[in-house]
# Entry
Amino acid sequence: MEEKDCRANIISATTPLFAERGLTGVGVRELTAAAGVNISMISYYFGGKNGLYAAVLSEQFAALNRVADLKTLDADPMAKFELYLRATVARYRENPYLLRIYASELTNPTPFFETIVKPAIQAVVQLLIDTFSEGFSDGRFREGLNPTDTVLALVGMINFYFLLEPVTREMVDHTAGRDEELIRHVMDIFAMGILK
Amino acid sequence: MEEKDCRANIISATTPLFAERGLTGVGVRELTAAAGVNISMISYYFGGKNGLYAAVLSEQFAALNRVADLKTLDADPMAKFELYLRATVARYRENPYLLRIYASELTNPTPFFETIVKPAIQAVVQLLIDTFSEGFSDGRFREGLNPTDTVLALVGMINFYFLLEPVTREMVDHTAGRDEELIRHVMDIFAMGILK
DNA sequence: GTCTATATTGCGATAGAC
DNA sequence: GTCTATCGCAATATAGAC
# Structure
């Protein structure tokens, strides 16, 4: 296998293992077996298990950075919030491992939390706060709302819904077919909750 | 140290380590060093590291089971939702490690997820769904609301707020002094979002 | 009940052959 | 660039002394 393919192949084959068991929960032998490569390839391409994990993390959070496209968009704040919801749901569908790695870094941070994870999430939250402030100064939202709390409420509704999937699997339909209903439902509560 | 004290001491001293680094992220040497006991005490009292972790998990989720008190309470649904919020916030203040272990089990489940974690969370969610249904059949809530989605929105707003603390620490005051404002804010959005 | 000492296994990393 | 073989270390667990 040539270099570029091999590197990418190792990353994609090991992402599910890191997502399900964490950095410390999986060993290099299992990682390389899943990728179908020799054990020494991890050191060769990534300088070690931690280096491979950092590469996995970078790839995952690159997807999150695309939310920044909202900034350049010319739309009113509520439409932007809805686009955020849609982008979030779409991202979790395209990439079923992102949320696990995301939440795993929040609860059991590795050395890469500060450099890769935290800045990426902060950028999204800040973008949403700016969006809220825009609508607030236009007088669209109720008085007395705290921008950060409001934004974190929206972020929490959608993310925790997916995070709880292992627990609520038997209580609610988690297939993509219901995504549209979910988005509408969250937007519904949020809009009624904050609009004048 | 006598038996009962020693057992309890090991559990309380190792809970922070398990919470911050996960079951696989910490070794028995470090665990026993933190508790100030000999390495063999883990096998003696708990039959091994996994047994200790299970004991830690049981203790943590016992706190969660106290939410079931809501069931016997004679109050209207919105008051019950507010009590759920208050109980949740109080629980995370009393026990700063519960949420991390909780979320860690959601993302990187151990063998104890199915037996200890999942049933405890399901009971809380089901209780809130029943509370919602009660208010819905009394005609208090807007038509078109899905009970499960609505309840998960509430659960997500409060839990994800705390989960994001490592990221939002510099953006928002996370001290207990602001808890009352947070609860009021979440209840505000939720009530406006679902009431007729 | 608590200790030391050790058995056993698995880990991550790499030297060196090809 | 990819392999085998192995090094050095840390892991969990426990036997057996006290």
Notes: Chain B has a mean pLDDT of 96. The two ends of chain B are 60 Å apart (CA to CA). The first helix of chain B runs from residue 3 to 21. Residues 1-3, 6, 37-41, 44 of chain B lie near DNA strand C (CB under 10 Å from a C1').
